[in-house]
Amino acid sequence: MEHYRQNLRAFAAFFVPSAGWLLVFFVVPLAIIFVYSVSETISLTEIKTTWTFENYARLLEPEILTLFWRSLWLAGISTVICLCVGYPVALVIATAPAKVKPWLLLLIILPFWTNLLIRTYALLNILGTRGRLNGLLEWIWTQGDRALTFIGLGAYDLIGEDFEPITFLGRWSGVIIGLVYVHLPFAILPIYASLEKLDRSYLEASLDLGAGQWRTFRSILLPMTMAGVMTAAIITFIPMLGSFLTPALLGRGQVDMIANVIERQFKGANELPFGSAMSLFLLYVTFIILAIQSFAASRGSRRGIK
Amino acid sequence: MPDPIISIQGVSKYFGDFMAVEDITIDIEPGEIFALLGPSGCGKSTLLRMIAGFEDPSEGRVLIGGEDMTGVPANKRPVNMVFQSYAVFPHMTVSQNVAYGLKMDGLPKAEIKEKVAEALEQVHLSQFAARLPDQLSGGQRQRVALARALAKRPRVLLLDEPLSALDAKLRDAMRLELVKLQESVGVSFVMVTHDQSEALAMADRVAVLKDGKLMQLADPMTLYQKPANRFVADFIGRVNFFDVTQSTKGSAEIIAGPLGALTLPAPVTGTGEHVLALRPEYIRLSPAKEGGLTGTLGDVGFQGDSSIVEVTLEGGKQVQALAGPEDTTMLLSLGTGAAVALSIDLSQARLLPA
Ligand SMILES: Nc1ncnc2c1ncn2[C@@H]1O[C@H](COP(=O)(O)OP(=O)(O)OP(=O)(O)O)[C@@H](O)[C@H]1O
Ligand SMILES: [Mg+2]
């Protein structure tokens, strides 16, 4: 890379277009957002840049804090679920026979070939009160009811008189299911990659020294693949925090996350400055998370975990 | 003879259709260094892994201390292994690595501490106890792996190519150190190696494997002097082979081949196609004189204390002879292409099945 000075033109040929792209479509819009975030709405059509911090101060209003808090825990819980589900799946793929492995990986990335909007509508269909999931639950309930009747306990309504469908849509449960569904592949892939890299003989050494399977998982496998787990956590948590479509459709306006409120500032409320401040705040949070992660990673690599 | 510490009884291992280990029966004595020797892919590691419990035999069984190990998982077997890659846990310090196996035994903290210190002492790593593995050299990491396995007081220590990841100089030093260590702890070592000089130098007994089959099991001296077949003779040390036809004439064995008609002093059985194996050190070269066996001098490979000399016999057959320092000087003064006489010590020749 040090040779770029000697070959300035070739370097420029590569550098200028990409730098130009970043400048026009990334830096400039970000700068505009920043300027908006320190501006004031004067009238319905006029916004004046007054270098005020008013918009940032408004982030501390209780309802906004509640919103942030809700976004954080929805994304947090969904991330934890993604990791808990993703790790075993990654483990199954990593230990699968060489012939099966590519097919399993294909299954994981298959959803990416369908548009997110379509997948989310499909989820609506599954999670509705008359959706497939409740259909399945009703079937199970009916079987259970029949079994109870059969053994002579039918009269006691032990599992309720009638089947009551569970409401997912417009509830946080539906939003979490949606977030997990959309982001699960992003959790599986980095964990899989770190498992794949791990030399089997570490696990054998642990068994050889007398540790059982569970102990080996806890003391060797998990710590040695922590880098992959951290990456998985970051690349699921950050987009979840800013996710828009999933809460909009599955939350039905009743489980808003940050992005939904930001959108309303820009579109309906004509509150560009406040929306900009919220957007930038989200960006700052992301930066902080990444900073923590890279700090943790550099400490991890000093301890030999790569 | 004491009861064997490990008894491998008719063990075979298939991977699909492929037979990696074929009907092997070996007893390993307490307190010995036992080497599994063979070329790459001959099934040495697979056999070792079946003792450790990482692979199950397809046929046969493994007994450790007289107990059948069939169905006993690796973490319940009284043996420990030093892996080829060492597999020292990178996220634990040296002493945590050594303590890991002791913790699994549920020993009290104080005792663990004591045993860790003792194990590190044994491999001269006491001052590195608090280091992480990536702050150690390859040789030191190997000693961590050794200490970690030995701290468990296994009945047998299994070593898979223990020296192959070290550079040549360190490898030689570690050979001696491993033998000394084995003498001081007294447990049996079963080591896998593809390096015949390593096996000869370290082991009390060696099993030579080829394509999953046991070719010969003997002490190093016997392997070298009395190889049971062509493969073993060839694999261990340098050797000249002569295709010969044997006929029995009275009690003397007359052999016809590129060396002319010879009479072997040692009794051999059977007649027909055989191969005569002769180590280079039993061929002595001198300036050509009338009669006897002669050849043309080729390259003289100087090795310091001796040299390996190529000679082409009259029929075109190439042989190797070992020359001492004085003979080397003599041969170098004769120069390549000179005629030399060969005198052969037939008492050291081995007649093997072709
Ligand atoms: N899990 C496996 N599946 C299929 N084949 C295997 C497996 N493990 C080993 N083999 C095959 O069995 C044969 C013996 O393998 P093994 O590892 O025991 O060889 P080795 O003697 O230790 O060789 P090296 O000196 O190269 O380590 C090889 O041909 C190898 O390809
Ligand atoms: Mg091997």
UniProtKB/TrEMBL annotation, chain A:
CDD domains: TM_PBP2
Keywords of this entry: Cell membrane, Membrane, Transmembrane, Transmembrane helix, Transport
Pfam families per UniProt: BPD_transp_1
PROSITE patterns in the record: ABC_TM1
Protein name: ABC transporter permease
Family as reported in the entry's similarity comment: Belongs to the binding-protein-dependent transport system permease family. CysTW subfamily.
Gene Ontology CC: one annotated term: plasma membrane
Membrane topology, record value: Multi-pass membrane protein
Domain named ABC transmembrane type-1: residues: 68-293
Membrane-spanning ranges: 12-36, 72-96, 103-124, 172-193, 220-241, 274-296
Localisation per UniProt entry: Cell membrane
Alphabetical GO biological process terms: transmembrane transport
From TrEMBL, chain B:
Protein name (record): Spermidine/putrescine import ATP-binding protein PotA
Assembly and interaction partners: The complex is composed of two ATP-binding proteins (PotA), two transmembrane proteins (PotB and PotC) and a solute-binding protein (PotD).
Domain ABC transporter positions: 6-236
Known catalytic reactions: ATP + H2O + polyamine-[polyamine-binding protein]Side 1 = ADP + phosphate + polyamineSide 2 + [polyamine-binding protein]Side 1
Keywords: ATP-binding, Cell inner membrane, Cell membrane, Membrane, Nucleotide-binding, Translocase, Transport
Family indicated by similarity: Belongs to the ABC transporter superfamily. Spermidine/putrescine importer (TC 3.A.1.11.1) family.
InterPro entries linked: AAA+_ATPase, ABC_SmlMolc_Importer, ABC_transporter-like_ATP-bd, ABC_transporter-like_CS, Mo/tungstate-bd_C_term_dom, P-loop_NTPase, PotA-like, Transp-assoc_OB_typ2
The encoding gene: potA
GO terms, molecular function: ABC-type polyamine transporter activity; ATP binding; ATP hydrolysis activity
Function: Part of the ABC transporter complex PotABCD involved in spermidine/putrescine import. Responsible for energy coupling to the transport system.
A family per Pfam: ABC_tran
PROSITE patterns, per the entry: ABC_TRANSPORTER_1, ABC_TRANSPORTER_2
Annotated PANTHER family: PUTRESCINE TRANSPORT ATP-BINDING PROTEIN POTG, SPERMIDINE/PUTRESCINE IMPORT ATP-BINDING PROTEIN POTA
GO CC entries: ATP-binding cassette (ABC) transporter complex
Stored SUPFAM superfamilies: MOP-like, P-loop containing nucleoside triphosphate hydrolases
Coiled-coil ranges per UniProt: none
Keyword Coiled coil: no
Source domain of life: Bacteria
The enzyme's E.C. designation: 7.6.2.11
UniProt keyword Transport, yes or no: yes
Listed GO biological process terms: putrescine transport
